[in-house]
């Protein structure tokens, strides 16, 4: 399940072994897409196995 807006992506990651790799890839993709550094991308756990990755406005 993935929900995307202009500033954020929410996704459910079922495979626990892929959490770090998946989030790292998503943070890198958003930083390139929004021309910002990766340290400005916020990752929050928004539920069980659900994460929201967002770019500050």
What keyword list fits this structure?
four-stranded antiparallel sheet; 26% helix; single chain; alpha+beta; 57 residues; 1 helix
Task: Give the helix/strand layout.
Blueprint: E1 2-4, E2 8-12, H1 19-33, E3 42-47, E4 50-54
Antiparallel strand pairs: 1-2, 2-4, 3-4
What does this structure look like?
With 57 residues, this protein is of the alpha+beta class. It has one domain (5-56). Helix content is 26%, strand content 33%. It contains one helix and four strands, in the order E-E-H-E-E. The protein has a four-stranded antiparallel beta sheet, covered by helices on one side. A hairpin with a 2-residue loop joins strand 3 (42-47) and strand 4. It is globular and about 30 Å long. The mean pLDDT is 89.
User: Rg from C-alpha positions?
Assistant: 11 Å
Query: What is the strand content?
Result: 25-35%
Task: Average the pLDDT over all residues and give the rounded result.
Answer: 89
Uncertain spans, ≥5 residues at pLDDT below 50?
A: none
How many separate helices? 1
What is the topology, as strand order, of the major beta sheet? Answer: 1-2-4-3
Alpha carbon gap, first and last residue: 24 Å
Brief synopsis:
This protein has 57 residues and is of the alpha+beta class.
């Amino acid at each position: 399940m993935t929900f995307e807006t202009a500033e954020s992506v929410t996704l459910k990651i079922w495979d626990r072994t892929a959490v770090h790799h998946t989030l790292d890839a998503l943070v890198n993709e958003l930083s390139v897409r929004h021309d910002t550094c990766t340290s400005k991308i916020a990752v929050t756990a928004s539920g069980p196995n659900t994460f929201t990755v967002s770019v500050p406005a």
